[in-house]
Amino acid sequence: MNMVTIANCHSLDEAQGLKMLLEGAGIPSFIPDENTSSVAPHHFLTTSGVRIQVLEEHVEEAKRLIEQTRET
Predict the structure, then answer these.
(1) Per-residue b/e over 29-62, b at no fewer than 16 CB within 10 Å?
(2) What are the chain's domains?
């Protein structure tokens, strides 16, 4: 079971919102940076952001759902 990064968020709040969206659609997701970003949020201002990951089998569906959400 490989986890794939499908989105990089500007904040932990944004990442948690996307995680709730995905899980509401039945797509299990994971925020590998959750602990670090809650303790040192300034670290993610200079990196690629807070990552959201899903299982490889859910990548296409998850990306499509996130894209639809960001368009509205």
Answers:
(1) bebebeeebeeeeeebeeeebbbbbbeeebbeeb
(2) 3-71 (3.30.70)
Alpha-carbon span 66 to 24, nearest angstrom: 12
Note the pLDDT of residue 46.
55
Share of the chain above pLDDT 90, in %: 65
Taking the C-alpha atoms of residue 72 and residue 60, their distance in angstroms, rounded to an integer, is 19
Q: What is the pTM of this model?
A: 0.82
Mean pLDDT along residues 41-65: 85
Burial of 14 (0-12, 13-18, 19+ CB in 10 A): middle
